[in-house]
Design brief:
Shape: globular
Low-confidence stretches: none
Helix content: 40-55%
Distance between the termini: 27 Å
Mean pLDDT: 97
Bound molecules: 4-nitrophenyl beta-D-glucopyranoside
Structural class: alpha/beta
Length: about 475
């Protein structure tokens, strides 16, 4: 029956988790106090103000290091049941290494978590959202395979410290964004332009690091704390421009999503076969002695495979795929041998990469479920930017239409989605876009030293949706 039951499809399943998300560097501020070490983002914004809109920095940001109780009060008022936040690695380990644990940093996150739990809000903790200790970067960062063990040491400390209170951990936010933006294009910290090898070497170590953290939780903490550790993927929907490009769209899926998901969720593990083949061919044609895609030996294939209790999905937008090429040579972008285009009819946002494509959400959720055995999923980010207004009707439109598509994926397609975290609770430091592009359902006044928070219209809309357990259509 093709008729969609409208009423049913506006209602959320029982026990569905509503949450809001943020990240340490984007909201905390307090960049050089209370024993915190320097992060790669501290270094980038201070050394290269030219790379950030208006020379903005996260030095103060939304000042949540001091104002977190206000943030929690807002979450509580709006009815959110969960809060996804990240920990600043150099706030815990200022030297980068586990030889010195910063007690004030440890205490800050205890205070935040306790405040959440006292207000009936479950924490979801992201171990790493892009701000690693600069000293580790000075030793190569994600290009050095020692990073795998440095991350493991850090993860152990986080699990040991917070495991009795936090039942959901996400290891690494958006591997692809880290490795392409940070080590290939060089627009994000650490700003390295090593296209064609950098992004592949980075993902290789990120995957190992994720798996090491997962195995540590499994062997040392799970029996005591009974929590879960998920892996996170940032996904666009790659839809064929028309049926002639089905194969091209499938290649884009394998290259962009299979790159990090196939090693974890497929039966055989490792990178997708099609990807291995294509990168090998391109590398050879370019005169490289061997493939630019690194190789996992059998030990690592087995170690990484199965290293997730749930799949965390960040989704914002879509692309149409056609045949052709894009990107510089050599690069991951170019290796795919496909071209991504933006449909000129898609509604815009304040971010040039972010077009409003609600149907893409259902499309990608179904594709993830099909390819990876329908694992338990949480949507860990979804949202839209504007240039700052309290009357954010465009944001309400975005959430309403994306949520409807998610509910269709749940009810019509059987995708196992357990919860949804909007991006973002607060207007925050939007990386290269500084404070210009705003994703919050709460407005933050960046002219005000007190960083006053004001609820936007979308915040009230969410309050209503959560209270009713269904999408209000008007
Ligand atoms: C996310 N894409 O990154 C980040 O996790 C947030 O920190 C950030 O503020 C938010 O997006 C908004 O930009 C993304 O490929 C990475 O579509 C990649 C994509 C989207 C967002």
């Amino acid at each position: 029956d093709d008729v969609v039951d409208e009423e049913k499809h506006l209602r959320f399943p029982p026990n569905f988790v509503f949450g809001a998300a943020t990240a340490a560097y984007q909201i905390e501020g307090a960049w050089n106090v209370s024993g915190k070490g320097e992060s790669t983002w501290d270094r980038l914004v201070h050394e290269h103000p030219d790379r950030i809109y208006n020379g903005d920095t996260g030095d103060v940001a939304a000042n949540s290091y001091y104002q977190y109780k206000e943030d929690v009060a807002i979450l509580k008022k709006l009815g959110f049941k969960s809060y996804r936040f990240s920990i600043s690695w150099p706030r815990i380990l200022p030297t980068g290494f586990a030889n010195k644990i910063n007690a004030e940093g440890i205490q800050y996150y205890h205070n935040l978590i306790d405040e959440l739990k006292d207000n009936g809000i479950e924490p979801m903790l992201t171990l790493y959202h892009w701000d690693h200790p600069q000293v580790l970067e000075d030793m190569g960062g994600w290009l050095n395979d020692e990073m795998v063990y440095w991350f493991g040491d850090y993860a152990s400390i986080i699990f040991r410290e917070y495991g009795s209170k936090v039942k959901k951990f996400v290891t690494i936010n958006e591997p692809k964004a880290i490795c392409k933006n940070g080590y290939s294009l060089g627009i994000h910290a650490p700003g390295k332009r090593l296209s064609g090898l950098g992004e592949y070497m980075c993902i290789h170590n990120v995957l190992k690091s994720h798996a090491v953290a997962y195995r540590i939780y499994d062997s040392e903490f799970r029996s005591k704390f009974h929590g879960e550790v998920g892996v996170l993927v940032d996904v666009m929907a790659y839809m064929p421009e028309n049926f002639e490009f089905d194969a091209a769209a499938e290649t884009a899926f394998q290259f962009n999503i299979g790159w990090t998901m196939h090693p974890i969720f497929s039966k055989e593990g490792d990178y997708p076969p099609a990807m291995k083949q294509l990168v090998a061919n391109r590398s050879k044609a370019e005169g490289f002695v061997k493939s630019r895609l690194p190789v996992f030996d059998e030990y690592w294939v087995n170690f990484i495979r199965g290293s997730a209790d749930f799949l965390a999905v960040n989704h914002y937008t879509s692309r149409l795929v056609v045949s052709g090429t894009m990107g510089q040579i050599p690069s991951h972008e170019h290796d795919q041998g496909v071209r991504e285009i933006i449909d000129s009819f898609w509604k815009s946002s304040a971010s040039n990469w972010l077009k409003v494509v609600p149907v893409g959400f259902r499309y990608i959720l179904v594709q993830l479920a099909k390819n990876y055995g329908n694992p338990p999923m949480y949507i860990t980010e979804n949202g839209v930017s504007d240039l700052g207004t309290l009357n954010d009707d465009d944001r309400i439109y975005y959430y309403r239409e994306y949520l409807k598509q998610m509910l269709i994926a749940i009810y019509e397609d059987g995708v196992d989605i357990r919860g949804y975290y909007l991006w973002s609770l607060l207007d925050n430091f939007e990386w290269n876009a500084g404070y210009r592009e705003r994703f919050g359902i709460v407005f933050v006044d960046y002219e005000d030293p007190n960083r006053q928070r004001m609820l936007k219209k979308s915040a009230s809309w969410w309050q209503q949706v959560i209270a009713a357990g269904k999408i209000e259509t008007n």
